Amino acid sequence: MRIFTVSDIHIDFAVNEQWLANLSDSDYLDDCLILAGDISDSEALIARCFDQLMRKFKAVFYVPGNHDIWVRKDSLADSIEKFFKLLELAQQHQVITEPKRLNGTSIVPLFSWYDLSFGTMSDTLLGKWMDFSHCKWPESLETPEAQNRFFLGKNKLQLAHSSERVITFSHFLPRIDVMPDFIPHRFRDIYPVLGSPQLDQQVRALDSDIHIYGHSHVNRSVKTKGVRYINNAFGYPSETRIAAKVLLEIDL
C-alpha cells in the first residue's frame, strides 16, 4: 500500500474540483490518501469529495481545515457544531478521522487551530483574515487560544498498537520554522494564524517519524529534530509557483 497526501484542495473552484474528478479511478485502489484539510465550506461539496475519493482509494484519512468549519453558508449554531457534523459526514463515507494502523504504520489525525503565538497580530490581519468573520464560536471558546486548546484536547495520543513508524497529520502548522526563508516579509503578517507549537508537542509525544500539514499553501519537506515535516497543498488556481498541484507519495 502506497501512502499519498494532499491538502487545501479548495474545490469551490471549478478547476480544482475538475482535478479531483480527473484522478484515476484505477491507479490508487490499493493505496491510502491523507487529506490534510480545507476541502470547502460547503457540506455538499465535502460529501461529494468524500464520495469520489472513496471510489479511488482503499483508505482516506481527513482532518477538517479552517475553511471547512466556516458557517457562512450553513444554518448551524457555530463552528464547533460544524466540526462534529463533518466528523459524522466522514464516518458516513468511511473516511477515517481517528488513529489507524495500516501495514505497520500508524496514521494519526491531529485536530488543532492557531494560538497567535507565531507572530504579532496586526490591524491588517484582523481586517483581512476571513476566519474572524466566517467562523462562529460558543462563548466559552471566544479566543484562538481557547479554540486551539479545545481541538488539541480531542486528539487521541495513545496508539493502540506499536508500529514500525508513525505518521501524524494536521491542517495547521506545528512549528513556524517549517516556513521557508524565501517568504517575503510583507507576506509574513499571516504567521500568527498558521498554527501552534502545542501541536508539535503532541507530534513528538507520539514519537512521529513524519508529520504532514497544510494551511500555508507552501509546498515543503524539511527534517527538524528527527521529524520530517511535509506540506503538499494544492492551493488556489493562481498558486502555481508555491504549490505542485499533484498528489505526493510519501517516501517511507
Automatic annotation (TrEMBL):
GO molecular function, one term: hydrolase activity
Stated name of the protein: Metallophosphoesterase
InterPro entries named among the record's database cross-references: Calcineurin-like_PHP, Metallo-depent_PP-like, Pantetheine_PDE
Domain Calcineurin-like phosphoesterase: 1-218
Highest taxon above the source species: Bacteria
Lineage of the organism: Bacteria, Pseudomonadati, Pseudomonadota, Gammaproteobacteria, Chromatiales
PANTHER family listed in its UniProt record: [ACYL-CARRIER-PROTEIN] PHOSPHODIESTERASE PPTH, PTHR36492
